[in-house]
Automatic annotation (TrEMBL):
It catalyses: 4 Fe(II)-[cytochrome c] + O2 + 8 H(+)(in) = 4 Fe(III)-[cytochrome c] + 2 H2O + 4 H(+)(out). Belongs to the cytochrome c oxidase subunit 2 family. The chain crosses the membrane at residues 41-62, 83-107. SUPFAM superfamilies: Cupredoxins, Cytochrome c. This is cytochrome-c oxidase. Its main location: membrane. Pfam families: COX2, Cytochrom_C. It is a multi-pass membrane protein. CDD domains: CuRO_HCO_II_like_5. Residues 112-254 form the Cytochrome oxidase subunit II copper A binding domain. It comes from Variovorax paradoxus.
Length: 386
């Protein structure tokens, strides 16, 4: 009897929780109302079965409870009942699966006029690429991936030359236009997920996955990584800005092409260096963003996966083996070049080796230095209570 009451209470509690819980989905901002409908169908079907089965079990517990003088009859076979159960289960499973298959078929079959957007995932950052004027994405290969060519675009492939590259975690899209999203990964399994669009897909190393959607509400939406991909996973975030076509056009017009990014790379930015620090620090700040350093290193003094960069330069850092080292320019350079050579105490030894040109390394180090304090001052600060 107690068990029967407990079961009924669990059922009642679950139903009430679903009706009154505050954690519903984010407002829909794409054409994928069907995703929500499919989820609702699943919830209703499984909900009905959940209630029916538990009520049935509770009823049986009471109806066939132990009573003196009564004995249960053994009935191993009941053809009629079995047929009903098999038939009912089949219909239920089909009702659960069929709508999903229909929606999925639509989800990966884009309209002809869809805008093509490539999403490139890498621990722990997002990059984006548009096909440019010719409407064709250039061929890519892991062999071509380098500091100056993170997308791995084949330099000899003509369609790749006008590809537009976004080496940051924010992409803009025009309102009301269908977008075909093609996804790649440079390292491990990630998953590009924008909750407001109800759209997501794994990015699998070595293959291109796809889905399409039409943004229907202007706004700035957060894109998440939805596959556990390492310690930086919770910080692997990006943004999709949906705006009216005119604003989108002017943003789009400022994007650099692949050809331009390659032409710029070999020539040293004499101007930037001569301008003295400021520009270089700015460049380092942009790099920290683009290379995903900010996923693990804060600049506000709070440690994350790695040490904060605030006050890092000039500080004396303790290594896992108990030795100490002064964080100066040489330390920063060698640590970024070979992150596995030494391990800082209190932090997991997980920093990935990031491809950087000499110029980029100098800019990044300058940026980290700009957030630190001169050695003398740092030493004095360390004596003071924190
Ligand atoms: Cu990428 Cu989680």
């Amino acid at each position: 009897m107690i068990m029967a009451v407990a079961l009924l209470l669990i059922v009642l509690g679950s139903v009430l929780f679903h009706v009154f819980n505050p954690w519903w989905t984010t407002p829909l901002a794409s054409n994928w109302q069907l995703m929500d409908d499919t989820l609702t169908i699943t919830l209703v079907i499984t909900g009905i079965f959940f209630v029916a089965i538990n009520v049935f079990v509770a009823y049986m517990l009471v109806r066939f409870r132990h009573r003196e003088g009564h004995r249960a009859a053994h009935e191993p076979e009941n053809r009629k009942l079995e047929r009903w159960l098999i038939g009912g289960t089949t219909v239920g499973i089909m009702a659960l699966l069929a709508p999903g298959l229909v929606v999925y078929a639509n989800y990966v079959r884009e309209p002809h006029d869809a805008l093509v957007l490539e999403v490139l995932a890498q621990q722990w950052q997002w990059r984006f690429r548009f096909p440019g004027e010719d409407g064709k994405l250039g061929a890519t290969d892991a062999r071509f991936v380098s500091a100056t060519n993170p997308f791995g675009i084949d330099p000899a492939d003509p369609p790749g030359q006008d590809d537009l590259l976004i080496a940051a975690n924010e992409v803009h899209l025009p309102l009301g236009k269908p977008v075909l999203v093609l996804m790649r990964s440079n390292d491990v399994l990630h998953d590009f997920f924008v909750p407001n669009f109800r759209a997501r897909m794994n990015t699998v190393p070595g293959q291109v996955s796809r889905f399409w959607f039409t943004p229907t509400v202007a706004g700035r939406y957060e894109a998440l990584c939805a596959q556990l991909c390492g310690v930086g996973h919770p910080n692997m975030r990006g943004y999709v800005v949906v705006e009216d076509p005119a604003n989108y056009k002017s943003w789009y017009a400022a994007l650099p092409t692949f050809a331009k990014s390659q032409a710029k790379a070999p020539e040293p930015p004499a101007g930037a260096v001569a301008a003295g620090g400021g520009t270089r620090v700015e460049q380092g700040r942009a790099l920290a963003d683009a290379k995903g350093c900010v996923a693990c290193h804060t600049i506000d003094g709070s440690p994350r996966v790695g040490p904060t960069w605030k006050g890092l330069h000039g500080k004396t850092e303790t290594m896992a083996d108990g030795s100490t080292a002064l964080v100066d320019e040489a330390y920063l350079r060698s640590f970024i070049r070979d992150p596995q050579a030494r391990h800082v105490k209190g932090f997991p030894p997980v920093m990935p080796k990031i491809e950087l040109s000499d110029e980029e390394l100098a800019a990044l180090v300058a940026y980290i230095q700009s957030l630190g304090s001169p050695p003398a001052q740092a030493a004095a600060e360390q004596k003071a209570p924190r």
